[in-house]
Amino acid sequence: MNKPASLIGNKNKFLIFGCGYSGSYFAKTIKKFGCTVLTSSRSISRDLNSFVFNSENSVVPDAKIFDRVTHILSCIPPDKNGNDPVLSCFKSQLKSSSLEWVGYLSTTGVYGNTKGDWVSEIDEPNPFQKRSCNRLNCEKEWIESGLPVQIFRLPGIYGPGRSTFEAIKNKKIRVISKKNQVFSRIHVADITNAIIYLLQNKNTLKFYQIINIADDEPCSQLEVIQYCYDLLGLTMPKPILFENAKEELSSIAQSFWMENRRVSNKLLCKKLGYKLIYKNYKIGLKDCYLNC
């Protein structure tokens, strides 16, 4: 268990922009510490702690949401021009607030294709996809803002309700084989708990502006699918070679298979001392299976 040096408490106010899968999980967890937590939604919600923010339609919340804010977590992707919507709309409010910390969820896609080699935070980004170029641009915007920001680069995210089990059950699974292809991944609980660990210990840990959050064991997608079929007691369909399957894949699905890298978590887990809850896909998916 990751033991805190100091606790986050009811004096803290978090604004979470982009309350999708990862943002919602973080919001639900951080509320347990007694913090005030306000989350953004693209349309009006019944949640009294939700505010509407839709940059595409220029719908922004009242400036009073920034009163006494101490922490910001942004999970919102780049806009159509490759810029960060939160900074585009709220940079002046953020800079005039007494923020202790800002977190930005980015992607390991900014490293590009390393042909299966390991990448770490000291490696120069070399994005291959347009969306990854946009992410890198947003990272730079946050860093250049002068705010106390940490960038978290994430690989494939999975967890309860969002895993290979759902693809199998919904008959949307594609069993594809590509020689020497690996993917890195991370359980949603480890994204949240790693960030909380860093916040709880930020007065004693060295500050790093860019941190990868990934598990210990990158592997092929085929291994993951086989493991899920085994847990379900089902027979996995015969794999299709990527070259034969790619014409049927969407352009975004094809793009994932065109990059091959192993993401190192040594900074987070070795230097900074975070202990993963789910060190590999087997432990994480077994938990998903038992709780689905």
Structure description:
The protein has one domain (13-290): Rossmann fold (3-Layer(aba) Sandwich). It has 10 helices and 13 strands. The chain has helices spanning 21-31, 85-96, 130-144, 164-169, 188-200, 221-232, 242-245, 251-257, 266-271, 281-290; strands spanning 13-17, 36-41, 50-52, 71-74, 101-107, 118-119, 149-154, 156-158, 176-177, 185-187, 210-212, 240-241, 262-263. The strands form 4 sheets. Strands 3-2-1-4-5-7-11 form a 7-stranded parallel beta sheet, with helices on both faces. Strands 6-13 form a two-stranded parallel ribbon. Strand 1, helix 1 (21-31) and strand 2 (36-41) form a beta-alpha-beta unit. The two termini are 24 Å apart. The model has no long low-confidence stretch (mean pLDDT 94).
Strand arrangement, largest sheet?
3-2-1-4-5-7-11
> What class, by secondary structure content?
alpha/beta
Q: Largest sheet, described in full?
A: 7 strands, parallel
- Per CATH, the superfamily is NAD(P)-binding Rossmann-like Domain
**Rounded to an integer, what's the Rg over CA atoms?**
19 Å
CATH class: Alpha Beta
Question: What is the percent of helical residues?
Answer: 25-40%
End-to-end distance, in Å?
24 Å
Helix-strand sequence? EHEEEHEEHEEHEEHEHEHHEHH
Total DSSP helices: 10
Domain count: the total is 1
